[in-house]
């Protein structure tokens, strides 16, 4: 497993994305089972994946980590759209289809949420989910996120406009959930 572990979860580790991971990322983001769920409708070539790596992954304005299970890359989790005046950011993630329903996404997102509140001092985390992505909605709700609204016809996927649902989690709600779970 190249690169050092940044965050340790129960089922996964999160580590910085390296250039050696770009082939995995490009292959997965071009899989229809991924791009449909994340609202992307155009293919990504090697140069575009490299641009994502250089512009987003290597940026000081994001936190983007590779989800690794048993030394195997299984997905990505990250924070972007930081607003440091409001102490907020947006959470995003995906897990490769062959690794769905194993708890990897939930563990990774939970670790990054904890890091966001405990280390970055965030007050609020937002997340967006497109319609027909029930697994992602369940993941967010299992972490304590609340659906806050909908953006109607916000993405054009599979020949139709799709709604997007916004979720939010406040630090005090997250801490309250954690305390309630310790009883």
From TrEMBL:
For this UniProt record, the keywords arranged alphabetically read as follows: Acyltransferase, Transferase
What Enzyme Commission number(s) does the record list for this chain?
2.3.-.-
Top-rank taxon: Archaea
- What InterPro entries is this protein classified in? Acyl_CoA_acyltransferase, GNAT_dom, Ribosomal_N-acetyltransferase
Carries keyword Transferase? yes
Q: Gene3D superfamilies this protein is in?
A: 3.40.630.30
Segments spanning the bilayer are none
The record, for SUPFAM superfamilies, names: Acyl-CoA N-acyltransferases (Nat) (SSF55729)
Q: Tell me yes or no: is Oxidoreductase among this UniProt entry's keywords.
A: no
Record-given protein name: GNAT family N-acetyltransferase
Give the originating organism: Haloarchaeobius amylolyticus
């Amino acid at each position: 497993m190249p690169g050092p572990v940044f965050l340790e979860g129960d089922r996964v580790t999160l580590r910085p994305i390296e250039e050696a991971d770009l082939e995995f990322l490009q292959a997965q983001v071009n899989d229809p089972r991924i791009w449909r769920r994340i609202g992307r409708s155009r293919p990504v070539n090697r140069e575009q994946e490299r641009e994502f790596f250089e512009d987003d992954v290597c940026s000081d304005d994001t936190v983007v980590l590779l989800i690794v299970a048993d030394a195997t890359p299984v997905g990505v989790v990250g924070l972007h759209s930081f607003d440091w005046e409001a102490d907020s950011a947006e959470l995003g993630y995906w897990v490769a289809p062959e690794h769905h329903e194993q708890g990897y996404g939930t563990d990774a997102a939970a670790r990054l949420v904890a890091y966001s509140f405990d280390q970055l001092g965030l007050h609020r985390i937002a997340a967006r989910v497109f319609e027909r992505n029930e697994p992602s909605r369940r993941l967010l709700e299992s972490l304590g996120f609340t659906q806050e609204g909908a953006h109607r016809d916000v993405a054009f996927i599979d020949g139709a406009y799709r709604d997007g649902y916004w979720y939010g989690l406040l630090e005090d709600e997250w801490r309250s959930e954690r305390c309630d779970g310790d009883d």
